[in-house]
Amino acid sequence: MSISHQNIALITGASRGIGASIARRLADDGFAVAINYSSNSQAADKLVEELTSKGQTAFSVQANVAHSADVNAMFNQVESRLGHIDVLINNAGILKTLPLTETSDELYERYFAINTQGVFNTLREAGTRLNNGGRIINLSSTTLALNMAGYAIYNGTKAAVEAFTKVFSKELRGRQITVNAVAPGPIATDLFLAGKTQEMIQNFAQMPPLERLGQPNDIAQIVSFLASQDSGWINGQILRANGGLA
Ligand code: NAP
Questions:
Q1: How far apart are the C-alpha atoms of 75 and 122, rounded to whole Å?
Q2: In a domain, 150, yes or no
Q3: How many domains does the chain have?
Q4: pLDDT of 75-96, one tens digit each?
């Protein structure tokens, strides 16, 4: 990363949940942040206002990560507003648990389009456009280690993300860019809480030996470290962050 300019981070799916928390933390760390969202412009703009009112540099950028043309346009916009990107956080994702036999063609395609092709689309742009010395951090999930019923397709999308992480770290040889993934356990966001009873939520909260649900900031502070210069020797790794759940 250059020391002569403010480092620039693009966070996908940063209007809400873990992504918004990552955007706040990276802005506190001194990054200029591009806050990507898909449909919730209000939430994204509110976050931009919160950060800019503190004197931080932030702007929101709409793109459906599933569409390569959107992703290409998003990189163009970030470069023209802020400059070349140093840190890419692939956070946008969806979760809908269903038995495999009840999963429609449409849901299967939507899942892989957003969770997997979305990451492919940004990695392909990043491979030629990220500044040398940069960082890429992908969001996987601890569910991959738990093999719970209902998670077959979601886990499939994240297994691919972990594979991309390991191989892409090698393909970027010579650029001094690291590629890692964080695999959270349950985190109290819309994605996790939607459709669950209080009892189900309590059961998840009791699973890790630390006996609580994760909070978005638990993940944001790990991403902050992986985005920093201090993490430079960690490359091609999957870091499970789940209070000891698995
Ligand atoms: P969330 O609260 O549901 O937020 C999802 C974010 O992704 C929103 O900002 C949403 O934008 C954006 N998004 C959705 N589809 C998109 C698309 N096609 N293009 C661009 N942005 C899109 O989710 P979260 O819990 O923060 O999850 C973030 C990541 O962590 C996901 O990859 C998820 O799989 C992973 N993860 C979460 C948990 C957990 O327990 N929460 C555990 C393990 C892993 P809009 O506001 O515009 O809809």
A1: 9
A2: yes
A3: 1
A4: 999 999 999 999 999 999 999 9
C-alpha 34 to ligand 1 mean position (Å): 16
Residue 16 lies in a domain: yes
At 131, which CATH number? 3.40.50.720
Give the single-character DSSP code of 38: S
Residue 129 Cα distances to 72, 78, 83, 178, angstroms: 10, 11, 10, 14
Residue nearest to atom 39 of ligand 1 (CA): 187
Among protein residues, the one whose CA lies closest to atom 29 of ligand 1: 91
For residue 186, which atom of ligand 1 is closest to its CA? 40
Is there a domain that residue 36 lies in?
A: yes
Residue 205 in contact with ligand 1 by CB distance below 6 A: no
Establish if 206 belongs to a structural domain. no
Instruction: Round the average pLDDT of the chain to a whole number and report it.
Output: 97
